[in-house]
Fold each of these.
Amino acid sequence: MDEPLLKRARNEQKCTATSSETASGDKWPAGEELCSGGDLSVHVEGAILVVHSLILALASPVFKAMLGSGMQEGLGKEIFLKGKSKEEFVHFWRLLQPGNFEPVTQENVHCLLRWADEYQVEGLKSRCEEHLVVKEVPQEPAALDSALKEAFIYRLEQRREQLLGLVKKDMVRYLGSLPCIAPESAELLRGIWPEICAASGVVLQKRSDCQVEAKELQADPSSLAPVSQHIVQMWPFVASALRDRRPAKRFQELRRALAGWPRLLETHLVRFQPASERPKASREFLSGLLEPFRSD
């Protein structure tokens, strides 16, 4: 038996009674059946829900350890989910049923992801990640920060790649308006920190704080290394630098666009005149008019 798994199960789901009686000897009220022929009572948020222990054990290694290890939960056929929501458990239970094609939605995806990760239901976790990638693409900076944090906490690699790709395409839009970021978000942004610094005009002079080799990040991706804390601390300055560079970037784009205007204006203004009759002064006037906007 997986000892770490057993320890986790014991710590998270402690049973306060070993039979269908309360500590004072009173009988528990009849449970609400979520399926016919259930053999396991789940106590959650003051309610008793009757389910099939086999389905929980097959879907979740955590429940399997609790029910098959000689723990009180397995012997008494009762599980107490303290601090959990009845509504969330019902959603979780429904999606564990074989052949259930109920879609993951915007309303339930975040709670289902939390349950799937805690109880190690990888199939459901993958469905949640697929929904996030396809249907919940962040449009605002605050939504991006929350999504980065979620991707880090639940180790969603596909979601992580999607979010970092969005950031790379438009760092000013997604990062410039964030006054601060969560440490978990900073951990994911470590991988593109040199690009962020380049976009904000921050010069990396040494590797010690900012540049991290890929093998170092892979060694312990779940820990918040000092590098992440460094990013969190200096983030307000980086975001401010990104915002300041936005007008400059737009001005440079305008200058590049205007560089071709003299020739364009000349073509349209004198296109009906023969080339020999086009006044040289007109060309010089147009060129001089737009000279300040030419690129260096």
Note: Confidence is low (pLDDT under 50) at residues 9-29, 206-226.
Amino acid sequence: MEEIAEHPHYLRARKLYCDSFLALFDRNPFLIRLLTDSSRYLVFTLSVILNANHDAERRETWFSVGRLKEQMAAFGMTSPRHVDHLIERMQAVGFVDVSNAPRDRRVKLLRLTDRMLAHDREWMATDYIILDTLCPQHRYAGVRNRDPAVHAAIRRQSLALLPEGARLLSAQTDLLLFFSRPGGLMVLEALFEGALSSPEGRECPFAFGDVAERFGLSRSHVRGMMRDAEAAGFVRLHGRGGRAVEILPRLWRSDAIGHGVGARLRDIAFLRASAELVAQSDVPGEPAENGVDAAGVIGDRADASARQ
């Protein structure tokens, strides 16, 4: 975690991540509404992981409404009705199909559509930008190129990392000020976009009204979020209406640690997924049946082993 945060090119990688993240959502009301807060983001992420691990012959792996609620509860999201609402929303926009289990019609099974999986490949490519930029020798090309086989393998391997992810996420209390609020993820990235684009990386333009319009939020909501961030010692506001904002050292560090935590878990998932794809190849280094060059996915075996 510290290795990523203290890398001499971290801020350049952080800017690339920020640009890619905002490109996914910028002035896209559909995606902003779908993933506007941490609970919706969590439902989306857990869904793709559970979907990738679903095996019709093994009931314990079924991607069901009940199993999704169990995983949400592990992250502190304990309202079953809220999860039901989010599933209905995803179904309405064509991201998930719901059906009864053929051998137990009391169980509601979920299946993600190609539309949602394609969006998740874009999301994953963004999530890996910092690793790909700072550690190109680890060969994340399969993620960068949105390879479906690499994407599915990473999501399968992410299941075992969920308990560690929940533990580490709960420790990132500073960022919850943004993550727990509608549009908070977008507002945080817009804030870093301005700071990372300014000559000194400090005070930057940040008009509350402009940010609110950009993400379909109310001006008072953005203003309240930023005033709370100032009270918590994360930012300093300059001028009325948030004409300029300065990110203070506490938020710079908390954000860097958060990205370091994410990078650590993603690298572990990538390594395990790479090993899975290599094992599926009939001959190491030869193309697998799914068309993935396993040796190209995993990179150098010795380097990979050393990173685990």
Note: Confidence is low (pLDDT under 50) at residues 285-292, 297-308.
Amino acid sequence: MEKQIAFVSSDRMGDSLIGMVAVNNLCRAGYTVTVFSDYLFQLRDWFPGFSIRSYPHTFKSKVDWQDFERVVVLFDRPFVSDLKSHHRHVEVMSESELFRSSKSMVDIQLDYCRCHWGIANPVRDNGIASVKTTGRLENRVVLHPTSVDPFKIWPQEKFLRLAEALRRDGLKPVLVVAPNERPDWQRAIEQGYEVACFESLSEVAGFLAESQYFIGCDSGLGHLASCLGVPTATIAIRKGTARLWAPSWHVNEVILAPSWLFCRPLKSRFWKRALSPQRVMSGFRRVKGRAQIN
């Protein structure tokens, strides 16, 4: 494989963090890789030693693709067809049969490194490094109750009942939301819960790195917490999708609605109603127990 590689990551945070597993293994194998990702560009201080640039949303973005001997694209995007017509070595990872596997997406990255690039002993590490923090704050549990996809959002009143259960267990729940979402969580503030928001993704990473646990909807922050070494519980809708996309770096449990909600139409319509705070709390306690053993 050519030594100068452009790695076009995803426009989603979780995918981008997973793609860094491939990038890290390429760099460890001696390749010079430039990563293109808006999310990773915001987190570039957490990836020292990596060259990271903003995401090229069109083929005509300010990137001279001819500077690279090969362009590797994590997931196909509309501009990739134009890119293929102007560059003779464009490789789209998601076109591999490996991406149809039932393994976790992190494991698929490892298989891809072995099968397509001949990297004998790839590592799960995505290269993230702990920026200096004050250390883990014992008993702080980050709750991330939102998602870019409204369908994945568990109801607010259930998150508040979960926060109450955590507090009864002697833990400190902190809800983390975007600045524009904070007004929607006034009820939580009135009930005495901390609702934290940050100006940058790098600040969020710092807060996660100092936390003991993470519970959240299926979103990129769960992946960020996991690769920072935080045990996570993920509220998800479908088992198959969760197996593929769940955070995979540290202890994680996927928490689903009861099994009697077995068919897709029922899950889509009723999963939020069927998944109780008690069920999520039970899943979290299993995560906590496994993390303490590890």
Note: The CA atoms of residues 54 and 94 lie 21 Å apart.
Amino acid sequence: MAREDHLRKGSDVSAYEALIAGAISGAVSRAFTAPLDTIKIRLQLQQHSFKNRKTLPTIVKNLLREEGLIALWKGNVPAEILYILYGGVQFTSYSILSKSLNNFEKVYNLKLSPATHSLIVGIGAGVASIWVTYPFDLLRTRLVANSKRNLISMTSTMSKIIKTEGFFGMFAGIRPAMLSIASTTGLMFGSYELARDFSRKYDKIPFIEGICGFIAGATAKGITFPLDTLRKRCQMYSVVHGKKYASAFHIFMNIIKKEGIFGLYKGFGVSILKTAPTSAISLFMYEYSVTLLKSFKS
């Protein structure tokens, strides 16, 4: 039988429970999907037109031949920190915002559907998460983009960014990132609630939270993927072009002009392969961890 839906409107999850369960879900989901994340970023950072882009097998073959197997885990340290922090902040802010919105609805006699409630709260949780974790997202991208066999350290990369681009260089591309993450997170939580509502007819299916999370992750990423590509290009602009700053709109128009509309969808297939299982594992581990924490309390 399916466990209680701890993300549903009106659910009673404390900030402490959400923080612990969110951090666990982030750590576990990252451990399973690190190589796919590396490949996705490499595909997104290609500057060729969509027609002349390197294919997935070519990217993987070149990466393994020139950089070794360990290259699939480049940027894993900041990525692990990112996922643990992101998971903790995302689910904690989700829990707090959900209760606040629930109280707001009661005071003003509003009646939002569970899916709409989760969509709004998810957007807020996405905004909170990206502000806390964005420097680690940028560091992860810079380390993954390094095509040399020798690994570079997170601290030296961070020092170089601050020295050459200033402190705010750590936040390059945060505007498209805010739009991307907020919309993706909102759509993921909203889709998850719709899937959970539908799944109540099939509550004896094992891992139902994971299946609903898979559907939610694929839906959200499918809609917002171009913003994710734009975010990665913004994060690498100073490295690729040797210039300190360019607006997200300028970079967006360059992609359209030189690579066509499909340039925004480079790495989309790998992204779905990565994001859908990540969302499935993340949401399942969160639900399971909250259930476990509550059982310890009782």
Note: The mean pLDDT is 89.
